[in-house]
């Protein structure tokens, strides 16, 4: 009787050990999968000798949530910071070489040289060339900014598509979890998969989750909009085919609620979508407004007449009038894209020296070739304070040269903050991922030592089987 | 349950993040070592990039003004030299006038000196530099002075003034009868003085009264040339031309004497005017060179500021590169060791 019991116990031990071994091998297989959570075999004794093995999944809700939040922040910040690096190169160029500020500096120098020898027409051509460079910088800056916005818009559309696909996959994973839980089977693999998808979703939008009965998970965005509840909510966005200065971009709707991009120009964004929205509607728009203001400053500084009333060296679509100075000073959307060097001045740079780009009524000098008064006055006006629109985000009372330098400073300030924040958030994301991995990941060494234990148990149980067998054999021998 | 846990993937990934960070830093440090400037100005300075942009632009602008001041200085020193020559010429006219008596022989010699004075005056005032006539005011494309040769507009107008006043030309035998008093009143008559101090000066000069203005510092402009229309030139022109026109004419000796004394008085005043001009030009020269010196100092100061803002100590950068290389090597070695560190290697 007791020998049979011993046999039974050894048998159930063998069964339990092999199940534990299978878990160890599953754990080792998942050792390098960052989304895999360690399985723990819980062995419980029932009636004497009988063992059951239950599978538990190591999870740490707290760390997982932290990791989700860190992922959102990091993804948003790195989108923002990467976008600004692109913007810097596209608009200001390496070392600000193609920035409006640099071009205006060169124009000022050309003016100074021409003013010293006004009789030399070549130097006048030189000034016109410098002016063309200024115009190119502003025009190309505008094109680059609007192209950038169009591109960001396209990326948003792609990202929204990806988010919708992820939500659909999440639905499948969630269903698997629910039905598994209801059936009472092991849902660890399904949970792993669902968490992995959730991490991906968190890269697009900040999420918060809660779990209902049967392990059913509900996702809302950071600001409380429902993202997933039994079925995914629709994330919708209509991309625009092209952008112009002053044209606002479309909003992303989640469950028909507009997604907020966070405070404008704050260099902070949580989630890739918010980061892209900020780039498209925040930084790029403000930069465009600054370029437009620089263009307005230039047209005004070089205007002809006393008081200045007609667009001179620089002209625009509203010429010969000059853009309204205010007050209040307002941004003329897209002016930086319209500004041109006056054709009359290109044909005859001497008009810049003598006045009269707008016709004989504006001629100032008829006396001779070395008249420098107007040229010196233009140089002074580039340095004279004027008022700029406060909506462009930088100092409103400054000269157009200082303003153009401030524009660079403003942008680099935002870019620096975004880059620093991206670095911090990256470190945080890495750190929380590490902590989560330490808490829920697999340590192969532990598993291997566990395997040794299991091996011993298995050997011992097998030994018992054979010993009992021998004992029964010898008993039967004696009986025979 | 374990008290402390560490996962295998955490161990093997532990160094990965710091590894990439260090490699990024290494690239930066190398760049900084090469250029002695921060690798990414915008990221390093943030909103303070404005300062760097402004300083750099100001340095370029100041340098441009210093360069153009060299041109202004060259023009001024040519002007100064020309004024020197004019003063010498005036002085020698005075000398020849004072020494002379006005018998026919001597008068003719003084006459020659008047003619010579006129010629050298015209040629000096027509000095050009760098394609610009120095004394043309701002009308530097046009030769400012026209001569007093026979047939020239100035000479014709001058002769007409004489003929209009006396009814005959100075070479007419009747001219011998003009008294000193008559001559004196003619010399101060507006029909003659207008030729030099009035509308008739246009026959002499096409220069403008306005002279060249130049910016010599960020906020400083100055007149940087002397025009041919200044009082001293007119006086000198009148002194020399009455000598040239009358001293070999048929005028009597007394009248010639009157001409000579008027010429001396005019030339004296011209000489003192020229001295004033030279002094004024000197003052402007001094202003220009002072402004250039000041701007060079400013450029030095600005460059120091730029260096403070953007500069990186190359030794420090080199040290950083060395440190990073050491760290990265350590981290490689550690990674390799950790990878070997597995229970698997001890199980047989």
Please describe what this structure looks like:
The complex is a heterodimer of chains A (480) and B (348). Chain A contains 12 helices and 13 strands. In chain A, the strands form 5 sheets. In chain A, strands 3-4-5-6 form a 4-stranded antiparallel β-sheet. A 3-stranded antiparallel β-sheet of chain A has the order 7-8-9. A two-stranded antiparallel ribbon of chain A has the order 1-2. The model of chain A has no long low-confidence stretch (mean pLDDT 87). The longest helix of chain A is centred in the first third of the chain and has 63 residues. By secondary structure, chain A is α+β, with helices and mostly antiparallel strands. In chain A, helix 2 packs parallel to helix 6 and helix 6 runs antiparallel to helix 11. Chain B is mainly alpha-helical and 348 residues long. Chain B is built from 10 helices and 4 strands. In chain B, the strands form 2 sheets. Chain B has a two-stranded antiparallel ribbon with strand order 1-2. A two-stranded antiparallel sheet of chain B has the order 3-4. In chain B, strand 1 and strand 2 form a beta hairpin. The radius of gyration of chain B is 40 Å and the shape is rod-shaped. The model of chain B has no long low-confidence stretch (mean pLDDT 87).
Give structural attributes.
heterodimer, A: 480 residues, four-stranded antiparallel sheet, three-stranded antiparallel sheet, 12 helices, 60% helix, B: 348 residues, mainly alpha, 10 helices, 4% strand
User: What structural class is derived from the secondary structure elements of chain A?
Assistant: alpha+beta
The helicity of chain B comes to 55-70%
Largest sheet of chain A: 4 strands, antiparallel
What is the averaged pLDDT score of chain A? 87
Helix content of chain A: 55-70%
Beta-strand residue percentage of chain A? 5-15%
Q: What is the number of beta strands of chain A?
A: 13
What is the CA-CA span between the terminal residues of chain B?
28 Å
What best-fitting shape of chain A do the alpha-carbon axes yield?
A: rod-shaped
Question: Which two chains share the most extensive interface?
Answer: A-B, 65 and 57 residues
| H/I helix tally of chain A | 12
Overall strand count of chain B: 4
Q: Helical stretch count of chain B? A: 10
Question: Which quaternary structure do these chains form?
Answer: heterodimer
Largest sheet: spatial strand order of chain A: 3-4-5-6
List unreliable stretches of 5+ residues of chain B: none
**Low-confidence stretches of chain A at least 5 residues in length (pLDDT < 50)?**
none
Order of helices and strands of chain B: HHHHEEHHHEEHHH
Question: Rg of chain B from C-alpha positions?
Answer: 40 Å
Question: What structural category characterises the helix and strand content of chain B?
Answer: mainly alpha
């Amino acid at each position: 009787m007791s020998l049979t019991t011993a046999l039974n116990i050894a048998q159930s031990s063998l069964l339990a050990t092999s199940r534990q071994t299978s878990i160890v091998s599953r754990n080792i297989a998942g050792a390098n999968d960052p989304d895999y959570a360690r399985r723990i075999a819980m062995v419980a004794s029932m009636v004497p000798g009988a063992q059951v093995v239950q599978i538990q999944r190591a999870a740490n809700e707290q760390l997982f949530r932290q990791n989700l939040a860190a992922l959102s922040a990091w993804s948003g910040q790195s989108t923002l910071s990467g976008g600004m690096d692109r913007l810097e190169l596209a608009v200001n160029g390496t070392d600000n070489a193609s920035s409006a500020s640099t071009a205006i500096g060169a124009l000022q120098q050309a003016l100074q040289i021409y003013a010293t020898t006004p009789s030399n027409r070549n130097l006048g051509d030189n000034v016109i060339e410098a002016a063309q460079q200024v115009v190119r910088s502003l025009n190309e800056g505008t094109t680059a900014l609007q192209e950038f916005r169009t591109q960001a818009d396209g990326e948003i559309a792609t990202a929204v598509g990806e988010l919708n696909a992820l939500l659909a996959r999440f639905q499948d994973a969630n269903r698997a979890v629910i039905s598994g839980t209801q059936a009472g089977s092991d849902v660890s693999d399904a949970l792993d998969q669902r968490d992995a998808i959730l991490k991906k979703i968190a890269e697009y939008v900040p999420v918060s989750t809660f779990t209902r009965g049967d392990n059913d998970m509900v996702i809302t965005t950071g600001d409380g909009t429902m993202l997933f509840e039994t079925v995914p909510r629709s994330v919708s966005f209509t991309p625009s085919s092209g952008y112009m200065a002053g044209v606002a971009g479309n909003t992303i709707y989640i469950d028909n609620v507009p997604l907020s991009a966070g405070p404008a120009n704050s260099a902070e964004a949580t989630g890739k979508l918010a980061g892209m929205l900020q780039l498209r509607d925040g930084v790029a728009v403000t930069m465009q407004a600054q370029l437009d203001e620089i263009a307005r400053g230039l047209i005004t500084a070089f205007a002809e007449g006393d008081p200045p009333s007609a667009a001179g060296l620089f002209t625009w679509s509203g010429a010969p009038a000059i853009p309204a100075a205010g007050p209040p000073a307002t941004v003329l959307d897209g002016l930086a894209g319209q500004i041109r060097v006056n054709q009359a001045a290109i044909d005859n740079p001497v008009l810049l020296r003598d006045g009269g780009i707008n016709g004989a009524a504006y001629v100032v000098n008829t006396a001779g070739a070395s008249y420098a008064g107007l040229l010196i006055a233009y140089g002074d006006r580039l340095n004279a304070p004027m008022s700029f629109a406060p909506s462009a985000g930088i100092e409103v009372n400054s000269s157009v040269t200082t303003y153009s330098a401030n524009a660079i400073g403003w942008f680099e300030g935002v870019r620096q903050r975004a880059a620093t924040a991206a670095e911090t958030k990256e470190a945080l994301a890495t750190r929380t991922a590490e902590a989560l991995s330490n808490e829920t990941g697999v340590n192969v060494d532990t598993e291997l030592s566990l395997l040794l234990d299991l091996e011993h148990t298995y050997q011992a149980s097998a030994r018992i089987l054979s010993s009992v067998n021998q004992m029964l054999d010898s008993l039967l021998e004696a009986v025979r | 349950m374990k008290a402390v846990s560490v996962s295998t993937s955490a161990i093997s990934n532990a160094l990965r993040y710091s590894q990439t960070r260090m490699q990024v830093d290494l690239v930066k440090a190398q760049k900084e070592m090469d250029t002695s400037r921060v690798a990414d100005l915008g990221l390093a300075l943030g909103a303070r990039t404005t300062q760097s942009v402004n300083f750099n632009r100001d340095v370029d602008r100041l340098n441009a003004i210093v360069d153009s001041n060299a041109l202004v200085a060259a023009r001024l020193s040519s002007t100064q030299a020309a004024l020197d020559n004019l003063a010498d010429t005036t002085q020698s006219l005075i000398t020849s006038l004072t020494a002379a008596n006005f018998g026919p022989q001597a008068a003719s010699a003084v006459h020659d000196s008047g003619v010579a004075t006129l010629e050298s005056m015209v040629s000096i005032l027509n000095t050009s530099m760098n394609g610009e006539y120095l004394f043309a005011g701002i009308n530097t494309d046009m030769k400012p002075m026209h001569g007093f040769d026979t047939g020239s507009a100035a000479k014709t107008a001058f002769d007409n003034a004489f003929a209009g006043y006396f009814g005959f030309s100075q070479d007419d035998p009747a001219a011998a009868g003009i008294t000193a008093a008559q001559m004196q009143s003619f010399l101060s008559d507006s029909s003659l003085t207008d030729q030099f101090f009035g509308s008739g000066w246009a026959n002499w000069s096409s220069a403008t009264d306005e002279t060249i203005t130049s910016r010599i510092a960020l906020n400083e402009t100055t007149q940087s040339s002397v025009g041919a229309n200044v009082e001293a030139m007119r006086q000198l022109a009148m002194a020399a031309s009455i000598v040239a026109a009358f001293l070999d004419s048929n005028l009597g000796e007394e009248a010639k004497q009157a001409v000579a004394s008027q010429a001396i008085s005019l030339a004296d005043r011209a000489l003192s005017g020229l001295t004033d001009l030279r002094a004024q030009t000197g003052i402007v020269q001094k202003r220009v060179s002072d402004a250039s010196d000041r701007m060079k100092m400013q450029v030095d100061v600005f460059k120091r500021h730029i260096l403070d803002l953007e500069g990186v100590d190359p030794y420090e950068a080199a040290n950083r590169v060395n440190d990073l290389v050491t760290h990265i090597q350590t981290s490689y070695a550690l990674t390799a060791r950790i990878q070997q560190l597995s229970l698997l290697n001890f199980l047989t």
